[in-house]
Design brief:
Chains A, B: InterPro entries: Homeodomain-like_sf, HTH-type_TetR-like_transc_reg, HTH_TetR, KstR2_TetR_C, Tet_transcr_reg_TetR-rel_C_sf. 2 copies of one chain form a homodimer. By secondary structure, chain A is mainly α. Chain A has 2 domains: 50 residues, Arc Repressor Mutant, subunit A; 135 residues, Orthogonal Bundle (Tetracycline Repressor, domain 2), CATH 1.10.357.10. Chain A is built from 9 helices and no strands. In chain A, helix 1 packs across helix 6 and helix 5 runs antiparallel to helix 9. Chains A and B meet through helix 1, helix 6, helix 8 and helix 9 of A and helix 1, helix 6, helix 8 and helix 9 of B. Chain A binds a DNA duplex through helix 1 and helix 3.
DNA sequence: GGCATTGAACTGACCGGTCAGTTCAAAAAG
DNA sequence: CTTTTTGAACTGACCGGTCAGTTCAATGCC
């Protein structure tokens, strides 16, 4: 069963082992033997729990993106329930995104590395998952336009992409090149950009 | 000689073949045989021209990033020489970035996919190349702060990352999901974001 | 012009090694 | 007794890199 606690634990161990290895070396140079070894599990166990290396990876993606989308959605909901504006909601989502990346940097690396590839087996899976994330942002943007909080000339889809990209790249650079800085610090810098308070003194 | 016209042509063919294949499938699942085949060249020729698969890839990266950095720098210089503001220069760089991605989408995909990996042979090469690009943006930002054109509270490094990320992700999404749109169109949407004219009606 | 020589450039069959995936008997866990 | 894990053995495909041999444009010579 999927819900057997024992099996669940094994799968989680395999996810964790796979995510870091694949983030480091890429999917195809990561071997199943390595994954099993790092998870502290026999190779046969991998194939008892997943049909193939590919399937292990796809479920890993689903698992990670599910967590991210949920975390973003919750951030937006909380901000709005708390009498915040839509821009406050966006700001909360930026923070939630940063916290996610801080907690699961390997997953983020791997996601970015695979998202725009063509001709991959899991390409359609990945596109579906992308929508799951971007839609959350788009919805808030659309709402903000509807309520007059944002300029109605903005291109919702593209702006959502750009915002996601802003957070993604800034956060990955942060992790890679200035890991000593705090989430607050990074969040403040990006907030400034979101609020358009970059221009002008 | 490196400058032998024949060799030059062969190398160019190999770059072109390699860049699309690696963008599609990633470095390690792209085989040297495939690269040679697509370039219309024998496998031995690859090894006559490059010491290894790795070196071919590194030189490919150097080649591509060089073009990008030059194009960005030129955009900034032209805008400034044309009596533009620093923000105009940033806007021009956004456009130059979009045009580059439009012309070399495969290279961009590959760059993004490899940039944040750890434990890779070419990691240090890639970091050096990243600086080459980001520095151009940072310089303009710093200038803009010095002249009072931008808020002096901004974090130059992080803002530069964020801007690059914004363009990168928006452009890749554009290519992948709405390829029919024009550069002008995308540029306009991102300009709006840069100028902070998103907020307010 | 015709002919020989040179060597950079290219060729492609081949080799040693690696890896995904399969199988299974036996043990452990619950 | 059932479910899950173990771990080792095996297979067949694939792949990076090598190298002895071939091609051919340029050069020099008569």
């Amino acid at each position: 069963m999927d819900t057997s606690p024992r099996r669940r634990a094994t799968r989680t161990k395999l996810y964790e082992a796979a995510v870091t290895l694949i983030a480091e070396k890429g999917f195809s140079s990561t071997t199943v033997d390595e994954i099993a070894e790092r998870a502290g599990v026999a190779k046969g166990t991998v194939y008892y729990n997943f049909a193939s290396k590919n399937e292990l990876f796809e479920e890993l993606l689903r698992h990670g993106v599910g967590m991210l989308a949920q975390s973003l959605q919750q951030a937006a909901d909380t901000a709005l329930a708390d009498n915040g504006t839509r821009v406050d909601a966006l700001d909360s989502m930026i923070r939630a995104g940063l916290e996610f990346i801080d907690r699961y940097p390997a997953f983020t690396q791997l996601y970015v590395a695979e998202l725009w590839r063509t001709n991959r087996a899991w390409q359609s899976t990945l596109r579906t998952l992308r929508r799951q994330v971007v839609t959350v942002v788009e919805d808030v943007l659309r709402d903000a336009v509807a309520t007059g909080e944002l300029n109605d000339e903005i291109d919702v889809q593209l702006t959502a992409s750009a915002l996601v990209g802003m957070v993604l790249v800034a956060a990955l650079d942060w992790q890679a090149f200035q890991p000593e800085r705090s989430v607050d610090d990074i969040h403040a810098a990006l907030s400034l950009l979101l609020q358009g308070r970059v221009s002008g003194s």
